[in-house]
Structure formats: C-alpha cells, structure tokens
Amino acid sequence: MRLTIETRTKLNAWLRVLPKEKGAALHGLESLFLPIALGDRLIVDTSLSETPRFLLSSNRPDLIPSNTVQEAWNAFVDSCPPARGRPSFQITVHLDKRIPEQTGLGAGSGDAGTMLLLLNQLHGFPLNRGQLHAIACRIGSDIPFFVQSGPCIVRGMGDRVEPLPSFPHLTCCVALPEFRVDTRHAYELLDNAMADNGASAVDPSVSLDIVLEALQKLEPLSRSGSFRLNSFEATLGENTASFLSIRSMLLASGAILAGLSGSGSAVFGIYAERAAAETAALDVQQRVSAARTFVAEIL
Ligand SMILES: C[C@](O)(CO)[C@H](O)COP(=O)(O)OP(=O)(O)OC[C@H]1O[C@@H](n2ccc(N)nc2=O)[C@H](O)[C@@H]1O
Ligand SMILES: Nc1ncnc2c1ncn2[C@@H]1O[C@H](COP(=O)(O)OP(=O)(O)OP(=O)(O)O)[C@@H](O)[C@H]1O
C-alpha cells in the first residue's frame, strides 16, 4: 500500500522566550502556534512483514543522519514494541523535502509529528493522546504541538500545549529572505541581550491577548510596524533591515499581523483574504528577488 502525505509547518504568531533557568538545557517559552498547510511530503510504502522494518530515503540525503522522521520511528517502536495480535510492517518512507531548514517554520518537527500520527494509525491506534504527547516531548520541543490539531498556546519547553478554538478562516504569506538562522545561536544571542539589558528587554511589545483579539476580529494590529511579536526579532543584528523591509511590505498589503516565525528567518503576514496574501507574495517577490514566497491556509 502506498500513501502520500503532506506534512505541516507552523507560525509562531506571538513568541516570548523566557530567561533560561539555572541548570536547564532549554529556554522556557510562551507562544501562539498556528499550523499551516505548507510542508514536506512523505511517500510511505507499507507491506506486512514478520519483523518490523523501517527504511528512510530523501531528496536531501544530507539530512538522513539524525532525521526527525527516523527518530519518530525509533521512539514509536521503543514505546510500543511488537505485540501478539498486532500486525507488523516493513515501512519504506521517502521524505521529499520542500521547506528549507533554519527558517523557523519547524518543518523537521512537522515531519516527525506527522510520522508519529501515521505510525499510530497504521498499527491500529495502540497509543492514546497522552502517550503520543509524551513520545513527542522526547523527540523535540516543537513536536508535541504537531501531534495536536489547530491553533495552540504552547508553554514550558514546548511540552504544555493548550488547544484553542479555531479563528475565522485565515491565509498566510510566508517569505523566506536570503539569510538563514541557526536556532542554537539565536538563543545564545537572546541570552546575551537578556544578560546585558534585563530579562524583559526582548519581550514582545504587545500582549498575547491583543494578538488573539486581532485574529478573532480580523482587525489589523497596526500598519506602522512599530511593534514586536517575537523575542527573536530583537536580536536579528545585521539581518534586521531585511526583516523590517519584508514585514513592512506584508503590512502594507493588509496583514492583520506580520512578524518573524520561530528563530527566523521566515517572515509571515496573516490575512483574512487569500487574494491579499497572494498580492503580498507577488509584491515581496518582485521587490526582493532573493526571497522565496509561499501562500498557505492556516489550519
Ligand atoms: C524557536 C522555536 O521554533 C519556537 O517554536 C523552537 O524553540 C525551536 O525549537 P527546536 O526546533 O526544538 O530547536 P532545535 O533546533 O532542536 O534546538 C537547537 C538548540 O536551540 C536551543 N533551544 C531550543 C529550544 C528551546 N526551548 N530552548 C533552547 O535553548 C538549544 O541550545 C538547542 O540545542
Ligand atoms: N526531517 C527533517 N527536516 C529538516 N531538518 C531536519 C529533519 N530532521 C532533522 N533535521 C535537522 O533539524 C534542523 C532544524 O530543521 P527544521 O526544518 O525544523 O528547521 P527550523 O524550522 O529552523 O527549526 P526551528 O524551529 O528549530 O528553528 C535542521 O538543520 C536539520 O539539521
């Protein structure tokens, strides 16, 4: 049996990074995560087999070592070893990468979340929601969100995921500037900024409640762009000008919100109408030839 599945990515429509607690490996965060219909593709062939087998290939063989899709399989068989009465499969997965990494869209995390959900479905749902959540937390901090559906507020180290009621229908324009961002380095820059200027120096300048209300009422937050939705926007350094210029184009096209996703480099605009998102994508593409743009529905 062959299945072709589109994975999802996410936007951090609002993101506050907290100072790292003493001895902690990761930073705590508070964020509004929105799933978007933009991602990679998993082409999955399954056949019944005496013993479980998993084989991964990709159009990006450089990403095969430590791949999140392989980690999803490893974690699944670890938590759910073969059992009498449950079918076992040989599963061959081709990961067709379409979304570049180091863009803050969490494509690698989305691939893993989709793989986990599919493995559970193929095996007759042996894991309940709580068990899937626990496995997702072990693989990576954005992955618990990807085993949920719809918008969520995510707290802690990605492990506290609170689903929200859906917003009215929304479409986004995602622009990928020429630069890419190494997530570890971006967190280090935030540490330095917090140490120099205080923990709140990099906080978003608007509250999460205001962002939620703007999306609910479809009312643009501001046309001027004098706001910060994401802590990482404060430490973009030499890439700040490129970010601000793309964001101002997205706002000028009528975005309800526009900002940086994750640690960057993706810049998003969120629109009530798909036509406005498409106009924004064209505008960015014409004016910033090095940028790539995508238009996608928010799920
Ligand atoms: C920026 C976000 O996309 C917001 O959703 C995520 O926090 C990124 O999380 P992620 O994809 O799990 O990040 P990874 O690429 O696995 O992490 C790279 C490095 O970033 C740092 N890191 C990551 C997540 C976190 N909550 N605190 C951190 O300090 C750690 O040094 C980690 O080794
Ligand atoms: N399936 C995968 N797809 C992409 N990258 C993967 C995958 N598995 C592991 N990786 C590793 O994870 C890193 C982060 O990839 P991802 O696509 O999630 O980027 P990102 O959106 O910038 O993530 P983040 O949200 O961490 O900033 C890559 O640099 C790569 O080394």
| Span of the ends, CA to CA | 28 Å
Q: Are there runs of 5+ residues with pLDDT below 50, and where?
A: none
Question: Structural class of the secondary elements?
Answer: alpha+beta
Instruction: Bin the helical content.
Output: 25-40%
Q: How many domains make up the coordinates?
A: 2
Q: Which architecture of the largest domain would the CATH scheme give at its second level?
A: 2-Layer Sandwich
H/E series: EEEEEHEHHHEEEHHHEEHE
What's the helix count? 8
Which outline best applies?
globular
Report the sheet with the most strands, covering strand number, pairing sense and barrel closure: 4 strands, mixed
Radius of gyration: 20 Å
Overall pLDDT metric: 95
Query: The CATH topology of the largest domain is what?
Result: Ribosomal Protein S5, domain 2
Portion of residues in beta strands equals: 15-25%
Ligands bound to this protein structure: 4-diphosphocytidyl-2-C-methyl-D-erythritol, adenosine-5'-triphosphate
Strands, count: 12
- Reading off the top of the CATH hierarchy, the class of the largest domain is best stated as Alpha Beta
Strands of the biggest beta sheet: in what spatial order? 1-4-6-5
